[in-house]
Design goal:
Layout: H1 9-15, H2 17-29, H3 40-52, H4 63-70
The chain binds zinc ion.
Zinc ion binds near residues 4 and 16.
Protein name: Reverse transcriptase zinc-binding domain-containing protein
Organism: Solanum verrucosum
Length: about 70
């Protein structure tokens, strides 16, 4: 997508600059401290933990799937 590195699944879905912008948009909307993990499974586990701390958590569980669908 960005043609700066090989298109591994972790790069495309987590670390590509274009994908990173999408993640930052959503993360800026909620009050969590977030460090992007290296692998998708780690992101899903961290996102699930972060979502449980939100008062309005409905819908936030689906953010990773929405980002990946968009990509
Ligand atoms: Zn890329």
């Amino acid at each position: 997508m960005c043609q700066s590195t090989s298109e591994s699944i972790n790069h495309l879905m987590l670390h590509c600059p274009i994908t990173d912008m999408l993640w930052k948009i959503f993360i800026s909307l909620i009050d969590i401290v977030w460090t992007m993990a290296r692998k998708i499974i780690e992101v899903l586990l961290s996102w699930e933990k972060a979502s449980t701390r939100l008062t309005q958590k409905d819908g936030w569980r689906f953010v990773p799937a929405c980002i990946w669908w968009t990509i």
